[in-house]
């Protein structure tokens, strides 16, 4: 369905009737647009949070009456609203490039608040793009119904979002409106948030430099690097040890994670789980006294002699405990190898801190000879 614009002389009440009749299609466009933007940002590997809403009939009617609009479908540009919350300032620009590339931007109604905010105002900075679907997307069957609809896409950092969340609670917008004893604090707060945004970007650059340093050290064969989440990630990406042992685990009966990758939603769940499993592995390394990349590398090289047999034994014991399924999570598999390799120092209190499920904890205890406590 293509929405026809009501006559330009329509009264607010006539507009309300038009919007009520077509509200469902605006809502559908909001949902589809949010999913499209999510996919576009994932493709460019930009981590964000995305909020979306379809303007309510009551809210739109109030805006028409307040602004005196006579042709609301053209004059109201935020009936469909998407908010993209980025973690870093530089990502705001990258997201803007994607929006400009993928949509027709109405520059007359778009706004960059960084350019309009006066230095004597307390406020937040964000970029608002008013967009519509371009050719050839708008000609596709699944998008044709939304040909005449505009949407507002707002892009801001998470700290800008934090300020915006409380901005409406502040009764003072300009400095001269605030009592003198409050002005300094308001300016300090506003400045701190902008500085924090800059520092997050600086930290990201430093992180990338550290990551590059670790990569260069590994290429030189220097493995005596302190283990942290970054060095662990660089080591595994460099050696592919986690993928190697994942395949071995699948060979001995562990469930492949491929079934988790059927849809984009499941993919997101799976990759979030991988992040959690990586942190769990680092914790287990610390618990078992492994402090450097070199120590981990020695364990995994030594595991070439016994690792496949031990993983098979764990799978057999686990299947005997109940109907549960052992997934071949690349980081969990390495965790199991480390726990077995360090069995001389692993105690029950360590196993309880591993965050492995209860059945797997019992399997590890049995495997390394710790008596299992039976609770009646």
Strand tally is: 6
Low-confidence regions: 372-376
Within CATH, the superfamily of the largest domain carries the name Beta Polymerase, domain 2
CATH fold group of the largest domain: Beta Polymerase, domain 2
Shape: elongated
Q: Tell me the series of helices and strands, N- to C-terminal.
A: HEHHEHEEHEEHHHHHHHHHH
Separation of termini? 64 Å
CATH class annotation of the largest domain: Alpha Beta
| Oligomeric state, counting identical vs distinct chains | single chain
Proper CATH architecture of the largest domain: 2-Layer Sandwich
Assess the beta-strand content as a share of residues: 5-15%
What is the helix fraction of residues, given as a range? 55-70%
Number of domains: 2
Count of discrete alpha- or pi-helical segments spanning 4 or more residues: 15
Q: Indicate the mean pLDDT.
A: 85
Query: Would you tell me the structural class of the helices and strands?
Result: alpha+beta
| Gyration radius from CA atoms, angstroms | 28 Å
How would a textbook summarize the main sheet?
A: 6 strands, mixed
């Amino acid at each position: 369905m293509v929405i026809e614009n009501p006559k330009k002389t329509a009264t607010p009440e006539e507009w309300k009737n038009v919007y009520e009749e077509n509200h469902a299609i605006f809502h559908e466009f909001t949902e589809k647009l949010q999913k499209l933007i999510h996919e576009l940002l994932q493709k460019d590997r930009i981590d964000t949070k995305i909020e979306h809403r379809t303007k309510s009939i009551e809210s739109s009617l109030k805006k028409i009456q307040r602004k005196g609009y006579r042709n609301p479908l053209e004059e109201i540009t935020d009936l469909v609203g998407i908010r993209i919350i980025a973690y870093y300032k530089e990502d705001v620009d990258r997201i803007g490039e994607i929006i400009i590339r993928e949509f027709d931007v109405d520059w007359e109604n778009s706004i960059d608040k960084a350019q309009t905010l006066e230095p004597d105002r307390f406020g937040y900075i964000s970029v608002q793009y008013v967009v519509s679907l371009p050719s050839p997307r708008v000609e596709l069957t699944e998008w044709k119904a939304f040909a005449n609809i505009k949407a507002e896409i707002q892009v801001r950092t998470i700290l800008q979002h934090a300020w915006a969340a409380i901005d409406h609670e502040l009764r003072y917008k300009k400095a001269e409106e605030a009592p003198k004893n409050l002005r300094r604090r308001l300016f300090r707060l506003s400045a701190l948030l902008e500085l924090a945004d800059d520092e997050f970007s600086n930290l990201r650059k430093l992180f990338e430099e550290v990551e590059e340093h670790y990569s260069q050290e590994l290429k030189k064969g220097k493995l005596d690097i302190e283990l942290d989440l970054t060095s662990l990630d660089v080591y595994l990406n460099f050696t592919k040890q986690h993928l190697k042992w994942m395949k071995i685990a699948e060979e001995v009966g562990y469930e492949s994670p491929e079934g988790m990758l059927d849809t984009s939603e499941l993919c997101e769940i799976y990759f979030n789980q991988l992040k959690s499993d990586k942190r769990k592995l680092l914790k287990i390394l610390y618990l078992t006294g492994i402090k450097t990349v070199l120590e981990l590398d020695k364990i995994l090289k030594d595991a070439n002699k016994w690792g496949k047999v031990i993983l098979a034994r764990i799978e057999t014991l686990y299947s005997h405990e109940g109907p549960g399924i052992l997934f071949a999570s690349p980081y969990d598999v390495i965790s199991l190898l480390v726990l077995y390799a360090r069995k001389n120092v692993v105690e029950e209190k360590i196993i309880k801190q591993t965050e492995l499920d209860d059945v797997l904890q019992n399997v590890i205890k049995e495997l390394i000879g710790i008596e299992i406590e039976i609770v009646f």
